Amino acid sequence: MLLLLLFLLIALVISYAIVCRYRFSKLLQxxxxxxxxxxxxQSRVVIVGSGICGITAAKTFxxxxxxxxxxxxxxxxxxxxxxSDQYEGASLQGPYWMYQFADFxxxxxxxxxxxxxxxxxxxxxxxxxxxxxxVFSNVDxxxxxxxxxxxxxxxxxxxxxxxxxxxxxIIEADILIMAIGNNSSxxxxxxxxxxxxxxxxxxHSSEIGNGDILKSARNIAIVGGSKSAFDIGQMQPHKxxxxxxxxxYWTPRWLLxxxxxxxxxxxxxxxxxxxxxxxxxxxxxxxxxxMPLVAVGINRPDSLSFLDDIMNGGGLHVCTTSTQxxxxxxxxxxxxxxxxxxxxxxxxxxxxxxxxxxxxxxxxFQPTRxxxxxxxAIELQDTLNDGLYLxxxxxxxxxxNVYFLGFRDPSLNMPSNASVQSLWAMxxxxxxVQLPNLNDMEKMISTRQQNTRKLFPFSHRRAYYDYFLAGExxxxxxxxxxxxxxxxxxxxxxxxxxxxxxxxxxxxxxxxGAIFGAEIISDDESNAATATATATDSTSLL
Length: 542
Fold this sequence. Notes:
The chain has 18 helices and 20 strands. It is an alpha/beta fold. Helix 1 (about 1-30) crosses helix 17, helix 3 (about 50-65) crosses helix 13 and helix 13 (about 415-430) runs parallel beside helix 15 (about 480-485).
């Protein structure tokens, strides 16, 4: 009897996952109807960046019959952080079904033999997605075009005049989509004394490429404890010294496969408070007992708090394979930070000298430095050191008709999150989403900024993961539901609960829903296209 009940429960959950996936994929795949009038569809849409968010935005505008769409890409290929020049070994941290377009399952040939595809597979996945939704045939993609400045011009109906750095060309935009992401901006390269006396080579992680520059090195020093530092350390582990200011817990990948992991994780994060005494007993038990027990820290932090480590370290670190984990055992680990260069390496704050003929800064990117340069004539906020605070993580009141996509971190399913953000931005530009007046919007952003800086430790990305704050409806784990609610008259007004809402399932990345939905609905790319083509056409999906 007990086994029968268990079987029925599993069958119910599988059915639920399939329905959730199907409903949300249909919402993103085909417009229920087109509420945008012809005049708006003639707007000149310029999208800066062709990564996940840029291609998703282009696909959304194409679906709703916009005819003047341009993508400006600084490199010579699409893919964003998954371009071919990204360092070798770059891969998804989690399983592929947690990084998936809800309306385009991963083709089977791209994930054969792996559940965490590498950069080439992810880039190809983005390319096939763009191809399926006719992005290449309907969008003018200009490669090797980076935006130097953007200025609003009153003489062209307040359009944005974009100055292209490479050609000095001026491109006009009625709608400007900033999709350069958190990791495509200026690299953070600390300047420490005596750099000129150092005899070796210095690189940022973004310059490592296929790793050939490391093969001839005798000793390699990698500074940083982020994903890029971890990945680059895998290239020549026996030669590597990893220097990190704070040790981090590394989450085993199997933890992400637990049923409703996303719901548990978001509940845990929402219970985070800087002062441990302000956290509930349940949160403290999960945070200080359960999570440290399952973590595979290569050099465990002094603090028992898993949440403190994530907030201070800037994100969730996932150990993707057992091979990678055992490679870390070959590293020399130093818990310190560089004080100055020596002729043959680095002198650390703890007094140790590290010999290295190659130093790699795995220190990430400053995600807002580009905005200081592009919108140089506009004072966006008091400081951009901890990120750009935006209304619903998309809109800034001082930048009309400019929409930022991908600036909400750490979203467990970036592709589907970007899909909903793109819908919101498009409907906002068309006047369907009603924004608060500027004063109210500025007050909302200011309040969120103050609360964030009060409750969270400093991070360059602090503005992008504070949606865990309790009591902030727009900073909630129902974020995508809030965005769809704003598109009044487009989708059904009924909004289901957090636990059964289709958009919530996919934007937050429920592994349980994804694993069953991906395997049952589609076996390959062709089936993915036909599986959703036989659905109901104009019925309400939400």
